[in-house]
Amino acid sequence: MQIAEIKSHLKSFFEKEFPNPGSSIADDTNLLDDWFIDSFGIVNTTLFLEENFGINISRADINAKNFRSIETLSQYVVYQLNKGD
Amino acid sequence: MPGLLSNTPISPEEQENNDRHDPVIVFAVLAFLTVYIYLFTYASEAFDLPMPENLGYTLGISDSYEFDDDGNISTSLYIPFTYQFDNDDERFILFIGAGLAFLLSYFLPLRHKKRSLVFSSLIIIGILYGMEGAAGLICTHTLVYLVLHPVSRYRLWKTTLPGFFGFWAFYPYSSLGLVVFIQSLAAGSASFIIYRYGLLKLLNNSTIAKGLRILVVQSALITVLVGAVLEGVYGEPWKLTLGILLFFWHWERLFMYHIDYQDGNIPQDISLMTYLSVFLTPGQIANWNWGVTIGQGYAYSTHNFLCEDKNKLVRSGLKLWAVALVYFLLGDWLHARLLQFLNGQDIPMYSRIEYMSADFVSGQTVTTATVLLTTLIALMKWTFSWGGVMHFKVGLWRVCGYKVDPYFNYPWLSTNLVTLWSRFTFHYREFLVRAFYYPVFFRFFKGRTHLRIFTATMAAACFGNLIWGHMVEAGFYEGIALNSLVLSIKQWPYFVLLGLGITASEFWLIHKKKTARKPWTFDKHIGWDVLSAYVTLQYFALIHIFIYTPPEAKLSDNFQLFFTGLGF
């Protein structure tokens, strides 16, 4: 899967699950400060990543480096997918 | 969203940029501490100034406001486990120490700031708890450091510290003398030999090293369990040495430090001073056994140090101190007035849940309104009492340069239990999530979403919360005895009901129709927000019936009272 496609999936997911009227989500939008509405958003996103991309997420991956933006999350997904190959 | 995962590493260059002085800020901090000293200590008497009660009389508020017996303001801010000084004098030492710690960390160069906070803390602890307390903390923390971060060659001198300071912690002497000093040096030499020729060899074996790490990190739980068994055998409760007790209250943070360690977030060559700076900070000294998770582990405290302009951080700390002041000044007053008002409306009210339960057990009729309002107001009083202390503690962390999230973040705005879990006792919730929720969530029942969420939530909110969060602490509070553990375990319905409530909220959050509307938007739906917030807080308040229970109450009594509250 190409990174552009992953970004598109993620963008749709965030817009649907965490709708934020008046703001548009970009690749570099800070998800942690500006988008998630509650801590359960992380769990919800984890479930989405696992179900849609078939990746295996571990506890140590739940950090600000990976979850900062669509850009970082996409890179993380690509890394996990390549690791699976 | 407060601080969720928002602690990214910060470079020294960024920290240097955030380290600009502002004399107005310095003055504001010292002025705040002066107000605290005036209101909560005897300082005004010593300086021949009017005491707060006299000032209240002059201002005409002494009739409606209840002052402390000694003429100042009563407060839940105190120093536990020590009787070296009067409570007010202990607070005076704390406030003066906080001022010293602030000035040093504010003005010293970046590389000395955290070091200065460690030394300031040790000085304050040394004065408040004596050599016994400070030495015990250095001994135990150095031991943990040496197990988690083995040293060799020129750094082996550090291995003398547990023995040297352990001698002072376990055999406290009131005066220094040459013989005692030589004895402590001998103990230091012994600890060097034990480490160099015993422990270090064991640490070279990865399996044994892992076991030893778990042993030191879980030492509090192990001690409490072993102590309870020994008490059962010998009939004598085990009294902990002061320094060890103080160390055990760092246990949950040590747990989080270990998680950071396992996740590879801690540098291999971390210095002893950097390790100590995670645990020894002035912000933790007041009410040592309250809010013990504030600051969390290594990554959180390290990445949040001077991560933004320090004057902005200090200002946010002062705001929290102002809120704390409001809680301290008005919390008890508001609680008393509220009870008085409701009693006047023919709703019998109790100042504590235990008193209501005791009356219920003795056969008196308790109505649904009484149960609901008593539990809700008891929760409010607890929040005032803890809120004041927690805001003071977090404020002090911030004044010293750490961007630490508030422990309480407008909990009354929570419209479901998941949000309440984040807004209420934030750092403790982070501990439960990192130590129990994530390990279960990322290991078990993948592909079965509901079961996965249920088990992870129950592991954290129920199992971890009861055993690690409450049962062990009950041992520290009530004495390491079997009965303390039994009494704590008898509170299990609270933990089960909390876990089930949070799980139900999580399921609802997954399946509910997503809308763009944010809670507490001022529109036609705001009534639902108010109702949701009330139901959330009322449920949380109601399940406290199982925590604050009189000894004579049976489980069935507690459930009857709980169902009375639900209207059955």
Q: Helix- and strand-based class of chain A?
A: mainly alpha
Largest interface: A-B, 31 and 29 residues
**Residues in helix, % of chain A:** 55-70%
* Main beta-sheet strand count, sense and barrel state of chain A: none
Oligomeric state, counting identical vs distinct chains: heterodimer
Overall pLDDT level of chain A: 86
Order of helices and strands of chain B: HHHHHHHHHHHHHHHHHHHHHHHH
CATH superfamily of chain A: ACP-like
Known CATH architecture of chain A: Orthogonal Bundle
Poorly predicted runs of 5 or more residues of chain A: none
| CATH fold annotation of chain A | Non-ribosomal Peptide Synthetase Peptidyl Carrier Protein, Chain A
Overall pLDDT score of chain B: 92
Description:
- The complex is a heterodimer of chains A (about 80) and B (about 575).
- Chain A has helices at about 5-15, 30-35, 40-55, 65, 70-85.
- Chain A has about 80 residues and is mainly alpha-helical.
- Chain A is built from five helices and no strands.
- In chain A, helix 1 packs across helix 5 (about 70-85).
- In chain A, about 60% of the residues lie in helices and about 0% in strands.
- Chain B folds into two domains: about 40-305, no CATH class; about 330-565, no CATH class.
- Chain B is built from 24 helices and no strands.
- Chain B has helices spanning about 10-15, 25-40, 45, 50-60, 85-105, 110-150, 160-170, 180-205, 205-215, 220-235, 240-250, 250-260, 270-280, 300-305, 310-345, 355-360, 370-400, 415-425, 425-440, 450-480, 480-490, 490-510, 525-540, 555-565.
- The longest helix of chain B is centred in the N-terminal third of the chain and has 39 residues, at about 110-150.
- Chain B is globular and about 70 Å long.
